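# step 3/5: fold
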Amino acid sequence: MVKAFGLIVIVLAKMWVITPENIVLSDSASGSRPTDNAFQAVIDNAQAGDTLLLKPGRYEATPRPYREAICGNCVDPLTEVNATVGFHISGKPLVIIGEDQDSTVLVTNGGYGILFENSYGSYIGNLTVTHGIRDPDGNATDAAFVVKNSRVTIENVRIVANTHRIDTVVVGIGGIFGREGAELLIFNNIIRNNGWDGVALYRGATAVIADNVIENGRGAGIGITWDATAIVYRNRISGYWKGIGAFGNSWVVVRNNAVFDNLGWGIIATGNSYMEVMNNVIYHNGNCGFAVWEETARGILENNIIVKNGWKEEWVCPGVGIWMNTAIEKFPIVHNNVWNNTAGNYEGINDQTNLNGNISQDPLLEDDQSFRLKPGSPCIDAGAPEIIDPDGTRSDMGGFGGPLTRF
């Protein structure tokens, strides 16, 4: 055992067991925390492939200035951006694991809370990331996690209460943002009560986003932009301004998600994006349930339940189930249940009820949280016949149909 960097560190081969020391009292929070940026010093001294095991406690960053030559979300990508960084993993892969998701807490105090840069093969999990500070530069892609030119798995992390805002900047602090060269695996996280998008992918990013709870924030729950690509399945997105969106030239597969109780749209495709939307429940969103915003977007809408949308006065789209601004040949609508949407089930195209397997009936949901189907639901075995449920039967409509469902 050695004492270093203001922490107690036990070095066992390539495993670092890290315990906060120097317990102090804080007016803003209870518990213990290091008195300086000690954990960053451990990160800097660890070698590629090392594992850092964090014992319960608060690990608080001292933010550092960060200037980048490439802007993640500017029309001109060669726009200089000034930001701050809490914890910075650069030039090497590390495994960072907390002992407990609730009691191991990283307080980032920065705009880019945890920045992975040129870090191929990193993993972080089983902890909480919180209390970022919004940067004054509105072009900074502030988030609890920002990943650039790295392959990173983020699993079983609570990303919460990154809510700091500046009056002169519209955007806040998001959950997980993939930037140029990011390859992300985002599994089983809770992304709650943050100040901007839950997950956003910008130029040159790709991700698998699965089994996450993304709720109660500003912006979109999941936004895939520019030329990013994503597979998005079995997530719950609620309480955002907007649900899941494909923008620019992105390519997105969206399956078995529950998108509900958002203020604006549920799921949209726009720009030149391609979007495959299958076996989702799109329920009780404020304006439209699903929309193709521009005629240049392409994809397919299949096996979805789209019901009870349109409870809020029109803001970003009509309060309908499906709003189409393109030809149905570019975005086929097949085997969906579109029912009881406030301003109508379809706008921009003819009513598709009883065409191509589409129906308009009460889906008989068990409740408005699990979205399971009651026995006798018209959505059971009513999906596309070529898609099979795990029990070998014809697919159901909704989130519990198709091969990616989990009963």
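# step 4/5: annotate
Confidence is low (pLDDT under 50) at residues 22-35.
# step 5/5: archive (pending)
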